[in-house]
Amino acid sequence: MPIEPVPAKYAHIADAVQQRIERGTYPPGSMLPSESQLVREFDASRSTVVRALEYLRQLGYLEGLQGKGRLVLGSPPRRRPAMPDRVFDALHAAELTHGTVIGAGRAPASSRIATMLAIPVGEAVIARQRVMQGDGEDRSTLSTVYLPAVAAIGTGFADAGPLREGALDHLERCRRLVAADVIERLSARPATPRESTLLTVQPRTVVLTNLLVIRNAAAKPLLIVDLAGMLPAQGIEEIFSLH
To answer: What are phi and psi of 104, to 5 degrees?
Structure first.
C-alpha cells in the first residue's frame, strides 16, 4: 500500500483558517478567534496554533495587533513578476523611433491566430509588421501584431505609416481598450524564408519566437504580438523578486 505522509498539525490548522478567510467565514476587517478558542477547537497546543497563525501572517492573510489579537486582511493579491524589457518594448516602443514598418493590412485569420484571439478561423484581422532594431550587440526582432479587424475601425492601424507610439498604447488611446495582463509563450524553431531575409540570417537559422497574448480584465484576448529573433548567445535570464 502507498504510504501517504500525515500533514503536520500546524499545517492542518493553517489550511482550515485560510479556507475560512477565503470563503468569508472570517471576513476582512474582522478579528480572528483568540488563540485559546483555536486551541480548544483544534485540540492542539498553543505553540502549534501560534505557528499556524504566524505562517498565515507571513502569507498576508493576517496582521497582529498589539494587545488585541489578529486582524483578518482577506486573501492577499497574487504576486506577478515584473514585465521583462523584451515584453515592454514589444508593447510600448514607438514605431516611429524603434524600427521600420514593413507593412500593414487586412488578412483572414489563420487557425493559430484565430485560436489565440478566440475568433472564427478566416475572420478578418489586421496584421501589422515591423523590424525592431536591437541595441548594441542585440540582433533585430521581427514583430507582427494581429488585431481583429472590427477592433481596428477608426484607429488607422491598417495604415502603412509608423505610429508615434507603441501598438498597445495606440489602441488603448484610440479604442479605449484596457489591457489587464499579457501571457508570454517562448519557443524556438527554424526561421521561415521571409524571416531569414528580414532578419538577415542564414536560411533555417534557429530563432527564438515570443508570442504575447494581451487580455482584458475578463481574460478576453485583445490582440496578439508575434515576435521572432535570434537566440541570445547567453540565453534568456531574468531575476524575479520573491517578496
So the answer is: -155, 145
